Amino acid sequence: MRPNEAGEASSATEVRLEEWKRWAAECIDESSECLGELSREIWSHPELAFEEHHAHAALTSFFAGLPVSSSSAAWSVQRNYKLETAFRADWKWDGAPCSPAETNQATPPSPPPLRLGFLCEYDALPAIGHACGHNLIAEVGAAAALGLKGALESLRQNPAGLPRQAPAVKVTVLGTPAEEDRGGKVDLIKAGAFDNLDVVFMAHPSQEDAAYLPDIAEHDVTVKYYGKSSHAAAYPWEGLNALDAAVLAYNNLSLLRQQMKPTWRVHGIIKNGGVKPNIIPSYTELEFYLRAPSLRELSTLKEKAENCFKAAALATGCEVEIHNNETDFYNVLPNKTLQKIYKENGKKLGMDFISDDSLNDLTGSTDFGNVSYVIPGIHSYFYIGSDALNHTEQYTTAAGSEEAQFYALRAAKALAMTALDVIFKPDVLEKVREDFRLTKLKEEGHLNVPGNTKGSDNGIEAECASH
């Protein structure tokens, strides 16, 4: 093919790609009623981490019950996939069909399909239900996968403009439980659920549209103080006051804030403060969340906080047990290529994205951060028609509203369109992978930055595997 012919072919593919994106959006619109019912079913039955049995049943039945025709293969659904309330649904597209002239020619073995994953969350919060809108996350993941599947199926009947080397594609929907607690995605990573996936997609409800927000690293710690009971009025000198230790630890951390970086976060509660005022408490318990923008900074913050806990025990004569959560949430690594493409697609759908200046504002933490260290992906945010704040009763109401449906399905369309760009735009997948590699190297301090001369790819892999 001559250079000008190659350019014409590329231009034609670009035009058809926009048409394929419209097909994806139309497929999502056609399924909007059943997708809305799925979201409402999950919203109406809020379940805590690892207890999402109703949501699990609703989602797996949804994929297993989707209509099948002579030109449409069924989803392969695996219930209780590696975790009791996790699931996996797979569907495969075979890629560009061979021309009649090629069918009689010997062809080399086909490369493995491009594996694209869409992630669903569906656990709720204690007392206030779906105040983080995970019912909408589940709906968006399912809708985006259906949109992509519909567009690819349409190409079987209308292959005009399809690149000759269009890859086979395997679309995977992963149901990932317990984001609000221990982090089901971390367990699924360890179990191999993300092995061999090439790119993953998900979107989280918020107060604005954003291709990326700086979700930060988090460590959870429980601290237990053991003292000695005594009569608080008759002979207090015989006691060792565990509540004093807890209060001292709390105050130590409050004083530490003077020397903490503005981007660090420490917040906690005293869960057990004694049983009666005239009994010196012999046992207290605190629970704290520690957050920082990076794993390296989180490690420093953890050490400082631990010293505060130990100092309180030393001052009161109590014994202390520090129970560190085995699973840290990692900060989410950005992927600028995916973010750029998602914004381009979102703007075509009417999304109004926040300015880059707002990306300095810190948000919460998510186990998607751990996923972002092992596979390229995007964790976007979308407006749901309300200014209510996440983790409030008002947001619970907003997440179950009819108005939220329009915005959730719009986010799903943007994800499906972005997936089509990854499949059919030349070099996009390699750029996504290169962004992932360089960002991970930079995060772990292996790029040539001042004071650092490391540069080995092997080091990063070893370090990530040990977390």
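(ticket continues) Second input and output from the same batch:
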Amino acid sequence: MARFHQKHFSATKLVALFCFASVLSLALLAVTFFASIASDWIVHKSPLLLIPNLTSSTTNSIGRDAKKIVPERFLSATFADLDAPDLNWEEMPAAPVPRLDGSSIQINNLFYVFAGYGSLDYVHSHVDIYDFRTNTWVERLDMPKDMAHSHLGVATDGRYIYVVSGQYGPQCRGPIASVFVLDTETKKWSNLPSLPSPRYAPATQLWRGRLHVMGGSKENRHTPGLDHWSLAVKDGRALEKQWRTETPIPRGGPHRACIVVNDRLFVIGGQEGDFMAKPGSPIFKCSRRHEVVYDDVYMLDEEMKWKVLPPMPKPNSHIECAWVIVNNSIVITGGTTEKHPVTKRMILVGEVFQFHLDSMTWSVIGKLPYRVKTTLAGFWDGWLYFTSGQRDRGPDNPQPRKVIGDMWRTKLSLH
């Protein structure tokens, strides 16, 4: 009887150990899964490619020159940076605050940097102004209290800055339809008629006397919008009471560059889908959703029909204010590209792209000091500047991490 009891006890122990191991395995799988949902910043171990290091001159706030060594880049061989020449970058005075998903407009030597996230739980409600002539941050302006804080659409006529729609508040709160105008001479704000519907990060530009707004994400922050509206404006005022419906854009979505040059309107890159608010969350906590980043380029000309142009060298999003116009070409700095094919993590872009308007072709003209998205770019006296955004985790990890206010410049010679 005692022997029978011992056998029964051993079997019970084995069953218990098996059950414990099974539960532990399931728990580990669950942790891995939810970590995947919660973060785009997990390191993936795989074969590495070596990209040579970058040496650049750095100028500090008191003018002394120094050499800044950017470490060699190691990146998973399954998803590498594009080959690109080195550029000599100088570090300039950082923005007063770090910002992600902010916006910017350049008017002559002044660079207006709007709003954005300070962190996922904090948003800015002011404008910082940088003077390219003196390379200093010279002024701060408060925004209207009911103006959106990120994912704005912005455009200018050289004096008035039009600020369209966007997300109000931190995390993944909802968009608003309001439209504001800043008179950069008087520093006064005014209102225009609201959009027909709220949008996140719509492509926005002034063209032929009309303010054009298209694409972006709809109210749930994820569904791409195809709508294209325009409003006649002059000297910061609306000439019409309501927005006019235009030809829908062929592909919707947020985070695209929208540029007018040579009397043509270009819409470049972007994505379909975005993070959404977690259902029932009282703080509208961001929850990851499927996204598709694309390389599409579209153009409107005098026929008012969308034309498809050669695609970007790689899919690229988060570039709405990352562009400048130089020598009949469009230059774009940084962004985000398709998810890593193995880890499914967000991958930042570290290249500088040039779109040649005479030949309608693309080239890769250089590397940034690091990979970074939602850069705010300007060009002055031969210098390409960029500031702010969210940079990579280091040379060997292209996933996003730190929100920055850094300002960099490089002398750009394009033919």
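Agent notes: The radius of gyration is 24 Å. Helices lie at 2-38. Closing as not reproducible unless the customer responds.
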